[in-house]
Amino acid sequence: MAEMTVSEARDKFPDLIGRVHHGGEDVTILRHGKPVAVVILAETCAHYAALEDADLAKARAAACAAYLADPSATRTIEEIIAEDAARPAAE
Fold first, then answer.
1. What is the pLDDT of residues 47-73, one digit of tens each?
2. What is d(CA 8, CA 15) in angstroms, rounded to the nearest whole number?
3. In this structure, what are the phi and psi dihedrals at residue 23, rounded to the nearest 5 degrees?
4. Of 25, 29, 39, 51, which residue is 20 to 30 A from 73 by alpha carbon distance?
5. H helices present in the chain, as ranges
6. What are phi and psi of 31, to 5 degrees?
7. Angle at alpha carbon of residue 40, lines to 89 and 54, rounded to 5°
8. Are 17 and 42 in contact (CB under 8 A)?
9. For position 90, what pLDDT does the model report?
């Protein structure tokens, strides 16, 4: 993945857009050497959003099914947050 500073991105914005749009590159924008943003193709962003929507729909369906199977097994939001925090990030 290509990288450029915030100053470079500002000064060479048309080039940045060209690299992403025509060159198919993802470009990471750095401030003080640390990544602060990534410029990607709009269709890539839409693809990621669709994947996230599908994952959320699966989770929602599973939660509804679990509730319908046993309504007494509900959990508090605090319990859900704690379970989520304990889950490995790669999951």
1. 989 989 998 889 888 888 887 888 887
2. 10
3. -90, -10
4. 51
5. 6-11, 13-21, 42-69, 77-86
6. -125, 120
7. 50
8. no
9. 60
- Is pLDDT above 90 for 14? yes
Written as one letter, the residue type at 31 is: R
CA angle 2, 5, 6 (to 5 degrees): 125
**Per-residue pLDDT for 91 more than 60?**
no
What the chain holds in terms of domains, given with CATH numbers, is 2-40 (3.40.1620), 52-86 (no CATH)
From residue 83, alpha-carbon distances to 8, 26, 75 in Å are 42, 33, 10
